[in-house]
Amino acid sequence: SEKPTIYKGLVGVYADVSAVSKVMPETNSLTYRGYAVQDLAENCSFEEVAYLLWEGELPNAAQLEAFKQETASQREISPALHRVIREFPKDAHPMDAIRTAVSFLGLEDPEAGDVSHDAQYRKAKRLFAKIPTCIGAAYRASRGLDPVAPNPAHSFAENVFNVIQGRVPEKEVLKSFDVSMILYAEHTFNASTYTARLVTSSGADMHGAITAGIASLKGPLHGGANEAVMHMLKEVGDPAKAAAWLHGRFDHKALVMGFGHRVYKSGDSRVPTMKKYAEKMAEVVGDRTWMEISRILAAEMLEKKNIHPNLDFPAGPAYYLMGFEIPLFTPIFVASRITGWSAHVLEQQADNRLIRPLSWYTGPEQRPVPPLAAR
Ligand code: CMC
User: Fold this and answer.
1) CA of 8 to the centre of ligand 1 (A)
2) For residue 312, which of 330, 339, 300 has the smallest C-alpha distance?
3) Average pLDDT over the chain, rounded to whole?
4) Which residues form ligand 1's pocket by a CB distance below 6 Å?
5) pTM for this entry
6) What whole-number distance in Å separates Cα of residue 9 and Cα of residue 327?
7) Which site in 216, 256, 303, 361 is 20 to 30 Å from 112, CA atoms measured?
8) Alpha helix (H) residue ranges in the chain
9) CA 305 to ligand 1 center in whole angstroms
10) The pLDDT value given to residue 1
């Protein structure tokens, strides 16, 4: 039979319907449950957005309070997981550490084996609560430091800083961080979200889907780009060298990290907001080097290649200026995207059909198996 059209990379393929978020590349816009991300980022806390992604509506004051209490009270991880984390190799990448920790949380989960909607939703909230604790414990263990116990009175943002850095920064820094969490929370059928849905489609559980999502997010074409961006900015080092450095990349036809997007071709909806808050961080720290290099790279990429930056481009330097070490950037993305992933898992299972595409065979023609002695 004739070779069918192959949609390599599933470019342009609508694989399912979804009510979680909508990307509109024509207008460079993105909505979560109907609300523009930039409005959510300016007006809401990350907890409100997490609630929105799961419940479909923004919480009122009482619902928000109950949600914050429910999740903040579940941040502790078990002594067994603390022991396992202490055994991780000191030079393990924090993404591998969080992937393993989430998988372990699945072993211990009080509702392991129950894939009903309600149990899966509770698992998602437990993961939302515990992921920062795991990232903090693993990072600190790798530096020979004791873990910092999560404080249930802290907001989500305060808690992330406290369990990783052992300090809670000023309000402006917390706001910028919260903005990044909101912008990272959800983005339709990106690779990791689709991975989570694919795992779910076989009837597998929340922890399996999220572990797989983390594995997918690690790659440099996806979430790993926020780390790659900061390595790049440091390699450039000096705004005066930025243009020449970039032209060298063009000569090698190398990818420039933090640029380009499968869906947005004329600008990522999330970039202006993240850039504004990265600039604020540069002001707070009193170091404009990274933003200045970024400005030159973005202008040159647009002029010479007509390629726009994606969210990872301003998020990388923002996290650096907030005092996070570079290998923590993608795990921080995980702490946010657990919301979008799990909203999709719940949506997938509510109207599931096993995801099982076809492949067009290009291997050898059918042939007899030669006996071992004849090979
Ligand atoms: N640097 C240089 N050239 C690029 C880049 C880039 N970052 N992105 C796209 N191009 C070129 C690409 O080489 C291609 O050129 P040509 O037509 O001559 O072959 C053209 O632009 C079209 O790109 P594409 O390869 O068809 O785009 P895609 O949809 O397959 O890939 C992408 C999208 C995000 C994987 C890619 O842009 C990329 O690798 N970017 C760098 C990594 C990155 O920043 N990833 C973060 C993605 S968004 C947020 C997230 O998930 O965290």
Assistant:
1) 15
2) 330
3) 97
4) 9, 190, 221-223, 225, 255-262, 307, 310-312
5) 0.97
6) 27
7) 216
8) 37-43, 46-55, 61-72, 79-87, 94-108, 117-142, 156-165, 171-184, 191-200, 206-217, 225-236, 242-251, 271-285, 289-305, 312-321, 329-350
9) 11
10) 83
Q: HSE (CB half, 13 Å, CA atoms) of 283? A: 9
Cite the residue boundaries of each domain of the chain with CATH code 1.10.580.10.
Answer: 21-220+326-350
Hey, which residues are catalytic here?
Answer: 222, 261, 312
Q: Report the atom number in ligand 1 closest to the C-alpha of 187.
A: 51
What is the position in ligand 1's atom list of the atom closest to the CA of 192?
A: 51
Predicted local distance difference test score (pLDDT) of residue 265 = 86
Instruction: Judge contact between 301 and 246, C-beta under 8 A.
Output: yes
Hey, whose CA ends up nearest to atom 9 of ligand 1? 260
217, HSE (Cβ side, Cα atoms, 13 Å): 36
For ligand 1, atom 18, name the residue with the nearest CA: 253
CATH homologous superfamily for 225-321?
Cytochrome P450-Terp, domain 2 (1.10.230.10)
Candidate CATH numbers 3.40.800.20, 3.40.50.620, 1.10.580.10, 3.30.70.1110; the one for domain 21-220+326-350: 1.10.580.10
Q: Give pLDDT, residue 317.
A: 98
- Which residues of the chain have a pLDDT value below 70? none
Residue nearest to atom 32 of ligand 1 (CA): 261
Indicate the Cα dihedral angle 268, 272, 275, 280, nearest 10°.
-160
Give per-residue pLDDT as tens, 233-290. 999 999 999 999 999 999 989 999 999 999 998 999 999 999 999 999 999 999 999 9
> Which residue's C-alpha comes closest to atom 42 of ligand 1?
221
User: What is the distance in A from the centroid of ligand 1 to the CA of 265?
Assistant: 10
